[in-house]
Design brief:
Length: 395
Amino acid sequence: MKKLALILIMGCTITVAFGQKNVRQSASNYLKDGKLDKAMEAINQCVLDPSTAQDARAWFIRGNVYLEIANTKDEKFKTLDANPLVKSLESYRKAIAFDTKKEYFEDILAKLNWQRNNFYNNAVEFYNKREYKDAMQAFANGAEVIELSGITDTLSLLNAATCASLANERSASKEYYLKLLKGNYKSPTIYISLSDIYRQDKDSTNAIKYVRMGQQVYPNDLRLLLTETNIYLTFNNTEKALSNLQVAKEKDTSNYSVFFALGTIFDNLSNDTSKTTQFRAEAFENAIKSYKDAIRLNKDYFEANYNLGALYVNKAASINDEANKLPLDATVQFDKLKKEADTYLEKALPFLEKATELQPDDLNTLYSLKQIYARTNKPDKVKQVQEKINAVPKK
């Protein structure tokens, strides 16, 4: 009796398995007939059943069903699933895993290429709507589709990394750039972007590592030199940053951002009280020259105009502090210092006026202008600036 019972149980198992394969065939037939709702219902029943849960053909058919749902123009089928392309990709991945004899591999590859194009087109739509995180995921899914066939989709990965940066998803961006490197994608942009991500993460070791890797492949690329400079600036290695920028200045005499960066370094050094008076005075003059060079190359460079104006204003404030510390009877020296301070304020004016012309709502510039006009006895100008300040939208 026990043997008979065992045979009966085995018979039931075989019957169930055949039953699910009939369901699988029904799903395939429904798909051919365009009855996507019935095809989806049948194939999901099939893959959820333990007897066919690892059936490669069932998962292949499921991938086809969801791919058709993604592509359908029929309104009644469009809402069958919120993410049919993702479900299709999951299905093909499982079909490949269970297809040990590679019976369906070539057919799956053909479908994957079609699917990748769908993901790519969706990603472009998301990108155009500035939905960068969704665009990132769609590009990444497209790359993953092709990856299943053993090929690195560098275009989709590069776009995914770019969208990740725009969406402030640094971790994802890093992952995509590393995949591109692994896939032997050739571009200095990869090393620059990876290095900059690690710099923002305060990981100086990896930031330097990837910029140096890039410099080995592209030794004459100025952007890599400037990326290295940014690392030094971030981690307060002023000496190396300054050295790099001097090299960059010689390599590209038309790059106004290099001269601006030099100006900011000299500007900071001019305020470094650990340095000698002579060193700080030289740094001050070098800052002026560098900012002026940046403005000469780009007269509409707000940051350079503002920084040069601020440099003069800060110098005037420093001289005023010195004057205010004098004894009350040192009137001659006091008047001399006040006159010198006013000279620097007058020098600041054209650059701050240009800065406020370029960015009318910048309050720092407006307050600085108001201070100078008040100090140099220009009440009409003070009134005009105050009106501009009042008109700035409150955040």
